[in-house]
Amino acid sequence: MRVISAIGEQLGILNTAEAIARARELSLDLVEVAPTERPPVCRIMDYGKFKYEKRKKSHHHTHQTKIKEIRLRPKTGEHDIEFKVKQAKGFLQHKDKVQVSVVFRGRENAHIDEGERVMQHVLQQLLEHGKLEAPPLKQGSKIICTVAPK
Questions:
Q1: How many domains does the structure of the chain reveal?
Q2: Rounded to an integer, what distance in angstroms lies between the CA atom of residue 53 and that of residue 69?
Q3: Exposure winner among 11, 76, 79, 126, fewest CB in 10 A?
Q4: Residue range of the domain that includes 100
Q5: How confident is the model at residue 59, as a pLDDT?
Q6: What is the Cα–Cα distance from 47 to 140, expressed in whole angstroms?
Q7: Strands (E), the chain
Q8: Residue 89 maps to a domain
Q9: CA atoms of 134 and 107, how far apart (whole Å)
Q10: Residue 51 domain-assigned?
Q11: In a structure prediction context, what are the per-residue pLDDT tens digits for the chain, which is 150 residues long?
């Protein structure tokens, strides 16, 4: 069998007993890594450590993008808007999308221009940290727009 050392150098073709003896000298294991090759390939390694590292890598997850929403009203105060924008910037830095909604209720539906002004003010601040994915659109009694991270 072809044997590879623990540091990755080729030791050449050895018989099984000799390969096992070399692995035992180093207090390591002889692991068959390519059984279908001719001759089969074995590697001298710490198999327990190898399994641990493999399991550790499998538990590491990548970030799943979520859509976070911030809701505003046409009469939302300036400080409240700044606070919501600060939250949205944090979402964008965490690689989440942000859906900005301006909700109208009752008589507020007569003043859509005020809601559009609030939306433009928020977008002006958020576009430094993200890019516009969907432009502001009126859907029923809401104006909705989506900002994606850069």
A1: 2
A2: 38
A3: 79
A4: 67-149
A5: 78
A6: 62
A7: 2-4, 10-13, 29-34, 41-45, 67-72, 97-103, 130-139, 142-149
A8: yes
A9: 27
A10: yes
A11: 899 998 889 999 999 999 999 999 999 999 999 999 989 999 999 999 999 988 888 877 777 889 999 999 999 999 999 999 999 999 999 999 999 999 999 999 998 999 999 999 999 999 999 999 989 999 999 999 999 998
pTM beyond 0.85, yes or no: no
The upper half-sphere exposure of residue 14, i.e. CA atoms within 13 Å in the direction of its Cβ, equals 18
Is position 80 within any domain? yes
Whether the CB-CB separation of 70 and 89 falls below 8 Å is answered with no
Cβ burial of 1 (10 Å; 0-12, 13-18, 19+) is: middle
CATH number where 22 lies: 3.10.20.80
Residue 62 lies in a domain: no
Residue 4 token pair? 């590879």
